[in-house]
Amino acid sequence: MKRAGVIINSQRQYDSLSQYPYIFNFYKEFPQEEIGITEFETFALDRLNLLKDIENASLSSNGKSLVENSKLYELMKKYLPLNTIGDGAKMSLEDLFYQRRKDYLSHYILKLAYCSTEQLRIWFIKQESDLFRLRWHRCKDQNMKKEFIKSLNLNMTELSGEEKEELKEELLETSYLDNNFKNKDQYIQAFESDTYYKIPFEQVTDLVQQRKIYIKGGVAYLPSKEQISLLLNQYKENLNKSMEKMSQNLTKKEDDERIDPLIINLSQQYVEDDYILSNGNDIKYQEIPGLVRYFPLCMKNLHEHLTFDNHLRHGGRMQYGLFLKGIGVSMDESLKFWRKMFNKMTDDQFQKGYAYNIRHSYGKEGKRTNYSPYSCSKIIMGNAPSTGDHHGCPFRHASLDTLTKMLRKSNIKENHVTEICNYAKEHHYQLACTKMLEYVSGINNEYLENINHPNRYFDQCYPNSEYNKNKKLNSTNQQDKQMDDLMDSSY
User: Fold this and answer.
1) Is residue 402 one of the residues assigned to a domain?
2) What segments bear the compositional bias annotation Polar residues (predicted)?
3) What percent of the chain shows pLDDT beyond 70?
4) Do 79 and 169 fall into the same domain?
5) N or C of the chain: less Cβ packing under 10 Å?
6) Which residues are annotated binding-site positions for [4Fe-4S] cluster?
């Protein structure tokens, strides 16, 4: 049985490498591959685990390139190994085939799971692009790289030796400015050994903006060392188009009780675990305005609009209300807080329209479900705010101008505001939030956890949180232990 090109509940026999000639792939053709349910799920989870590890590494990279992270290459070997003939691994053709088969099928299975919404597509394309970059950097088989690029039929022409010599001065001024050469001879040698290509500049606008390539008459002169930028731009564009088309096709398909639950579960797998409430219920409603300076930007924004408008729509109330619950505001104090803030209505209106929902969020009404505060992923991937709404993640949903103004209100230096906005523009929303925490709190980045939850931001920023109290206690106990060990060794 097929589902978007994947055949379920069958078994495939070994074939030649002609089906998967490279370890790189744009995954343009729907697989006509036969695969069992168990293999379907195993392949998907292995790839998803790798993508999650890549995302975590990106969030903790502190601006360093992912290709410098040796741990990621070990994880690639663990989850999705891709060897080549002659790389020293001594793999049989059959083993190489099944490695590439797993890579191809696992990509399409996750594509099924992550094509349904724009937010899911953005996340998937980002991690898949990073995986492609890592594979390209790791591969030392230059012939395979050349053959793969040739197979893509890209609109690029190799620069002749005569043209290269004529443009030598201009090409040298742009192509190698970011390299650390020991002397001029190394600089010239690198240029002489490199191959250049002519392409339409629109295909490498990122390199144009960074002034890394020479442009003349609408033509960009691309050195081979920058080919990865061209490939990634093409890859992202193709992947986005194919996922949009797949999403449209999925709306027309028949339900499949075997596969649908797996697909839904996979699309939710990367969301963080529920936040475990670590603070007691000892924060009074009158104290909340004084604590806002320790809030993440999303909650500062909600509090500001609540104060100004004396109201928040449902999405904002849920996001902010559960956050306050997480920092240690009890149900009774929460009822007092919201009643004070909603001061343009009568007590009867508040009790009938809002009090029930507040009690419900604390597990005291309805099904008695004790709701957890929203994670960053839930906020980022959830329904985007429309006109009049203020929920969501400012790094994800606010315009650049609005985000800049919000960061300036937090007294962040202008150069840091620019840095944080750049992370947001690159879709590193949680890294942008972590950077904000670093600059607002003054805590060294080495001692901060990456932000995956608004309440974890507060825990780290607020000096009197249970998190910081325990951290300080553990540090004191460790120092005491070291002192005891030192005293014992002196006898």
Assistant:
1) yes
2) 468-480
3) 87
4) no
5) C
6) 298, 376, 393, 433
